[in-house]
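## retry 2 of 3
previous attempt timed out at serialization; input unchanged, resubmitting
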Amino acid sequence: MDRLSNQVRKMITSKQLKVSMTEVSRVTGVSTSQLRYWEKKGYIRSEQDEQNKNHYFNLTTIFQAFTIKLFLDQGYTLATAVKKEQERRELHRIFERFITDCILEIRQTGEKKGEVNLGPLADDPTKEVYALIDDHSTSLHLRSVNKE
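## retry succeeded, writing output
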């Protein structure tokens, strides 16, 4: 795996990116008072600066707030919206694990075209799965493992 892929992978999983409450409110459409209430109820979490004044949220929490608001806008109660967001977050964790564990290489093969190597099959390590992506579709394929 190349250095850039490793850096992106670390950035996605590190949760180091922090955004202020005001910015989260602006981006998600959730008021700062709602964010504070949700945090007080334990639905979301922030980190605070040394004076415990400014709240900072990581990327995961920003998505949580956005998703809770989306469910609220669809007419769900807050409790149900939070539950649905938690279910969605579990699916996201599964997908994130897939992305970090299975994508071995991504390479461009032409303009708006690429290939994603998903690695060898568990029951036949002589074969690997890869995806071809172009401007119109994505398709999965199987090939013999290249032993270079």
